[in-house]
Recover the amino acids of this structure.
């Protein structure tokens, strides 16, 4: 199959989806406009999205329900992650179809694919879980949860106690062949939501892992695996910057991989915020010549693709 | 694309998935064996499944959570339906992959596709909702829910009050082109779970409907739309019967559409049980020559395909 379109994996951040369902139903409309814009610019797209607030709500609801009603059956975090992919994917695919129709375009096949992502059982993240999830607990509730459910709990900046889980590195997108086949058919695929459902290989079995993934790192792995031209991380800032918030702050139009790695070593990017995004960009840009990673605002996606704004990273 | 394989849509009933997550994780292993058996017999498959207990658990959990924590934001039934597709699909795709590997076969692309099914806003079912969902309520709770949430509630056989919703007829599988493309690529697709997320067309918009669908009727529509050779309804009985439970009970090996319609008129099949299955079979068998609908046990799927057991319906 010959195809001259540029292949792009988009990673949607929290601002593209909002924190609650009503917010999400509004946000996906703006997000859909940006996505269809990119397709009209001649890109073929795969969409990856975050799931922090969504998997939080679902996990809280399912845990409370199990606690109150049927305490023998807690829904594992992996299953909650799967559910969050549908919770987001349904709204997004619904809204994308509508955006194509509003532009009097025939929608391509649009599909949300439930995706598993393999992680290593011996990833060091599992020995030192750091990602807080779920509701805040009192000290006593935390002790109970640790005892009854085997949760690892930590105090969270004086606001109470929360469960913490590991955030291991994504190693393999299990549904890659399905995603690739759909893409080759011209479909618009939504997949690897929340970075994918984390699973660990146990012989032929893939076991759900107690973990959350970084969606940008998973999107970079997916982009590399699909031999994409672009990884595009859409977020709440227009560009990355060095000396951020200081008098000599400098917005970055472009970084080579070597420059980006140097900035990371200097501590230029905030951990848990810009740093993992830049790291995901480095991973993808490093994986082959002609691969460009971009960071920009959702609302300026088209302009960034035209090189009018945003930060690009390439070899 | 030429393909001599027989195209089949399978509809999995409650016994293929169980009522709780631990039951589901066991049940999908047996279900996966039956499905891979059918593929080894030379079928290309699309899998549709029910979601009664699953959407019930999810809907209860999300409703309780909204009630206790954030009462402004109830999760609509449509979103709960989407989540149930992932709740089941994740376990099923995970287990299917494992079954292929256990047989030393390379798994095909396997994907769960979140699916919307269009229903008509003026379907008479909406004026007379009959399907109970969610937990039992006291009379007072029922009155409250009716007032605050606009729910329609009915007394359920002396066991308390429950919300009732409509079960309209499925009219169109929105993600059909994606499902067809995946199937043409040799993928094993899990889709239209719970009969699909019911949506109503409002101009270019598809609005989630307060409804549940009959998964067998949706499977029949999907089979017709995919130009399938077979619709196979896997359930808890080996064959359909006339005069069921009476001295002259007769198991049926085959019915013509005309015979099946006659039996339906005679009231031979139990409403809410065998009747909708036979009606789904009639719909599919009637839709074209050479189309065969089958009803049999999950565990005897291979034998039924070989015509050794089960009930078939054709023109």
């Amino acid at each position: 199959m010959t195809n001259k379109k540029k292949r792009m994996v988009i990673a949607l951040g929290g601002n593209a989806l909002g924190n609650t369902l009503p917010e999400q139903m509004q946000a996906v409309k703006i997000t859909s406009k940006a996505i269809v814009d990119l397709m009209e610019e001649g890109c073929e797209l795969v969409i990856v999205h975050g799931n922090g607030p969504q998997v939080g709500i679902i996990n809280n609801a399912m845990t409370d329900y199990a606690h109150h009603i049927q305490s023998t059956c807690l829904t594992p975090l992996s299953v909650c992650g799967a559910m969050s992919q549908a919770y987001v994917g349904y709204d997004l695919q619904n809204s994308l179809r509508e955006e194509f129709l509003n532009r009097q375009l025939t929608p391509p096949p649009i599909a949300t694919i439930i995706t598993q992502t393999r992680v290593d059982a011996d990833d060091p993240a599992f020995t030192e879980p750091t990602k807080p999830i779920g509701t805040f607990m009192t000290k006593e509730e935390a002790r109970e949860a640790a005892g009854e459910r085997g949760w690892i709990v930590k105090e969270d900046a004086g606001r109470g106690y929360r469960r913490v889980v590991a955030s291991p590195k994504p190693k393999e997108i299990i549904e890659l062949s399905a995603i690739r086949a759909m893409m080759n058919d011209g479909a618009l695929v939504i997949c690897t939501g929340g970075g994918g459902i984390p699973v660990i290989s146990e012989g032929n079995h893939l076991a759900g892992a107690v973990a959350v993934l970084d969606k940008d790192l998973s999107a970079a792995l997916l982009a590399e695996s699909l031999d994409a031209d672009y990884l595009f991380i859409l977020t709440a800032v227009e560009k990355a910057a060095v000396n951020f918030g200081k008098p000599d702050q400098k917005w970055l139009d472009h970084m080579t991989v070597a420059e980006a790695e140097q900035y990371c070593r200097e501590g230029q990017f905030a951990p848990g915020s810009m740093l993992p995004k830049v790291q995901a960009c480095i991973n993808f840009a490093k994986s082959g010549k002609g691969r460009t990673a971009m960071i920009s605002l959702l609302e300026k996606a088209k302009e960034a693709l035209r090189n009018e704004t945003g930060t690009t990273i390439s070899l």
